TrEMBL record:
Membrane-spanning residues: 17-39, 78-98, 110-131, 309-328, 349-367, 406-428
InterPro entries documented for this protein: MetI-like (IPR000515), MetI-like_sf (IPR035906), UgpAE/MalFG_permease (IPR050809)
Keyword Aminoacyl-tRNA synthetase part of the UniProt annotation: no
Similarity field: Belongs to the binding-protein-dependent transport system permease family.
Subcellular location: Cell membrane
Protein name (Swiss-Prot/TrEMBL): Carbohydrate ABC transporter permease
PANTHER family linked: BLL4140 PROTEIN, DIACETYLCHITOBIOSE UPTAKE SYSTEM PERMEASE PROTEIN DASB
Domain ABC transmembrane type-1: 74-427
């Protein structure tokens, strides 16, 4: 008896294509309204002038690559794409691997991931304060000043200067001052300084005292007191001593002896100083270390990239840690049994097995940094904002930030789209290959 033939069942979507279209219609409408139409309108608008009344063709694109501000934006965007994703991915990989080996790894991951909960606006405000030039306000310069002062002694009296009318101390180069006459044993040298208010002296200074003795001695003091009075160039009652001032005895251009003034301002030099000139080195009056100009033209872009790394390192760490959890531990143990050290295991097994995850993180961050706008706009001060400019910020400034040129703004938007497309193409190819495995 012949077997009856069974006709293949037709799916509803094939027999009734309009059913599938009906289900897809809401998504297609949203896609067209929110993606296709804005892209098409931006391309069309980029071919017109600032107010959209005149067709200019590709002139707006020419302006982008001939104007200094947009060229700076293109250069800085390239720096962001090349540096920020790579640094964030590398830090995320290091954190993910190391936290697997410590007991408090979960707590560490929580701390590193917490910045992701902060908006770009809030992070920008935080780092604008961190990078303040004044060490008393900016955390970065407070740390830099502490490290600097640990290895380099700072001046105690940066604004002090000799009393020109009552002293023979004269400028001698490098911020130092040298007497025109020589010092003699038994005749105390008087080195009066001014330029500092008595109530602004550090610590609790003692009253100055006139030096005495048969050796080479002298006094360094503030030749001024509140309320006035006294004789210029003479140690008067109530005038304050300047403690810790370095005094050098110079003969024939060479330092033969040196000393520092005591709490009462007096100093004593060896007998070798007899007949020498006295010099107050510039180190006594050097301005206090003011820290690093983090937001100046030179360092503003690296500083902003550092704030971005702080925010997104947790994102990379979490994704890589998830991929690391799926790595076959037997492979790692087998490599260790065969004699591989931890660096070899990491470089030849862990990293290759995490390659798909690392690519995902890297591609995602590359797309993300092309849209960076908030951090640059908030952190970079107005004087150095041009040096920190990126394409997304330039788009805003050209269109809405006072430029009023929607043609150039649309052209920058189209260029950003063209820059993202190759990255998206690589990402789509990677996803297709993953499906085929």
């Amino acid at each position: 008896m012949p077997t009856p033939s069974v006709e293949p069942r037709k799916s509803v979507t094939r027999s009734r294509w309009w059913v599938a279209l009906l289900f897809l219609l809401p998504a297609l409408v949203l896609l067209g309204a929110l993606v296709v139409y804005p892209i098409g309108y931006s391309i069309w608008r980029s071919l017109y002038d600032a107010d959209g009344s005149g067709f200019v063709g590709l002139d707006n694109y020419v302006d982008i690559f001939t104007t200094d501000s947009t060229l700076t934006a293109v250069r800085n965007t390239a720096i962001w794409v090349a540096v920020a994703p790579a640094v964030v991915t590398a830090l995320g990989l290091i954190f993910a691997v190391l936290t697997e080996r410590v007991r408090w790894g979960t707590a560490f991951k929580l701390v590193v991931f917490m910045p992701m909960a902060i908006s770009m606006l809030a992070a920008g405000i935080i780092f604008r304060l961190v990078y303040e030039q004044d060490p008393s306000q900016g955390a970065a310069n407070a740390v830099a000043k502490s490290i600097h002062d640990t290895f380099v002694s700072s001046s105690v009296y940066p604004k002090a200067r000799p009393n020109a009318t009552a002293s023979d101390l004269k400028p001698s180069g490098g911020g130092s001052f040298t007497t025109t006459g020589t010092v003699k044993a038994g005749t105390p040298a008087l080195l009066p300084l001014v330029g500092i208010a008595p109530n602004k002296l550090p610590g609790s200074p003692e009253n100055a005292k006139a030096a005495s003795g048969s050796g080479v001695t002298g006094t360094v003091w503030l030749d001024f007191k509140l309320g006035g009075g006294g004789t210029k160039g003479k140690v008067d009652t109530g005038e304050k001593a300047l403690k810790g001032v370095k005094v050098e005895a110079v003969k024939d251009g060479k330092v033969v002896a040196s000393a520092k003034s005591g709490a009462d301002g007096t100093f004593s030099l060896p007998q070798d100083a007899d007949g020498a000139r006295l010099r107050l080195p510039g180190s006594n009056f050097a301005a206090a270390y003011g820290g690093i100009d983090w937001l100046g033209p030179t360092l503003v872009t690296p500083s902003i990239i550092a704030s971005y790394v702080w925010m997104w390192a947790g994102f990379a760490m979490v994704l890589i840690a998830a991929g690391l959890a799926g790595v076959d531990r037997n492979l790692l143990e087998a490599a260790r049994v065969d004699g591989a050290n931890e660096w070899q295991v990491f470089r030849r097994i862990t990293v290759p097995m995490l390659a798909p995850v690392l690519v995902v993180v890297l591609v995602t961050l590359m797309i993300n940094v092309m849209k960076v706008f908030d951090l640059v706009y908030i952190i970079a001060p107005q004087p150095s904002q041009d040096e920190a400019n990126v394409l997304a910020l330039q788009l805003f400034l050209s269109s809405f930030g006072g430029g009023g040129n929607y043609g150039v703004g649309s052209a920058i938007g189209v260029i950003l789209l063209l820059l993202v497309l190759p990255v998206m193409y690589v990402n789509i190819r990677r996803l297709r290959k993953e499906r085929q495995r």
